[in-house]
Design goal:
With about 260 residues, the protein is of the alpha+beta class. It has a single domain, classed as T-fold (Roll), CATH 3.10.520.10. Helix content is about 35%, strand content about 25%. The chain has six helices and eleven strands. The strands form two sheets. The chain has an eight-stranded antiparallel beta sheet with strand order 1-2-3-4-7-8-9-10, covered by helices on one side. A three-stranded antiparallel beta sheet has the order 5-6-11, with no helix packed on it. Strand 9 and strand 10 form a beta hairpin. Helix 2 runs antiparallel to helix 5 and helix 5 crosses helix 6. The protein is globular.
Length: about 260
């Protein structure tokens, strides 16, 4: 007997890396799984290099002063330079040292997924989604469907979806306290923001979308929504603590 799953093209794999599930969902008809092996090897390298929990990572060694920035690998130097640029773009609210220690994770996760998508495309794969801890990069179609659908988890009700993003070529990033607790802080006060539950940002690049979502969340309810309304090429949805949902005009979703 042929099941529905057997009729669907592609392959779906999940591995636990960087302390989170990383999912690759490919919908192409003929998939070389060696390409997926290569992508997961990339994520393991990112974890070994950028982890703030591994004592021998370059980020940990930089934080302890055991490694000079000039001696770090090119990817680490690029990430830290981009963090500085994003700090300027976000008025200082995106800060790789906001918690008092060097931690560029707010950029690294999205950047690593963007690079993973490039590796898949280089391997000739066109229709896929890569998700890391809930942040997603979409490419092509969710064959046999015409578009991908990404549910944005409600920040207070774990089994409820706050909105559904429907798109083809798009990155979707969400920042909030409901998954990892109060890990995002306002770098000026040193405290977690109050009055905002989550910020979702969509756009062409997951690294930037993730950084913008982190910054907008750190800004809180008074400054975040006005700031995101002025972004170019990126759309946002903010859920406030009182249940109010604010979204920019081009945010590609239906609200649940």
């Amino acid at each position: 007997m042929t099941t529905v799953a057997e009729l669907l093209p592609g392959v779906r794999r999940v591995e636990q890396i960087m302390g989170m599930p990383i999912v690759i969902d490919v919908r192409d008809g003929d998939v070389d799984e060696a390409a997926l092996d290569h992508v997961y090897a990339w994520f393991r390298w990112v974890d070994a290099t950028f982890s703030t929990y591994k004592e021998d990572s370059e980020i940990s060694r930089l934080a302890r002063g055991e490694l000079a920035l000039a001696d770090a690998c090119g990817e680490v130097r690029w990430i830290l330079d981009r963090c500085e640029q994003l700090g300027e773009e976000t008025r200082g609210f995106f800060d790789a040292e906001a918690t008092g220690r060097l931690d560029p994770s707010g950029l690294v996760k999205g950047w690593s997924v963007d690079r993973a998508a490039e590796l898949l495309r280089h391997a000739g794969i066109r229709n896929f989604a890569v998700s890391a801890g809930g942040d997603v990069c979409l490419s092509g179609r969710a064959v046999p469907e015409l578009t991908w659908q990404v549910g944005i988890q409600h920040p207070l009700e774990r089994l409820k979806v706050a909105a559904v993003v429907e798109a083809n070529e798009l990155a979707v990033a969400t920042s909030g306290a409901y998954a990892r607790g109060a890990h995002i802080v306002d770098p000026y006060s040193g405290r977690a923001p109050e009055g905002v539950l989550s910020v979702t940002v969509t756009g062409p690049e997951l690294a930037t979308a993730d950084a913008y979502a982190t910054a907008a969340y750190a800004m809180g309810p008074d400054f975040g929504p006005p700031w995101t309304a002025r972004l170019r090429g990126y759309e946002t949805m903010t859920i406030l603590a009182n249940g109010t949902l604010l979204s920019t005009g081009g945010f590609p979703s239906s609200v649940d």
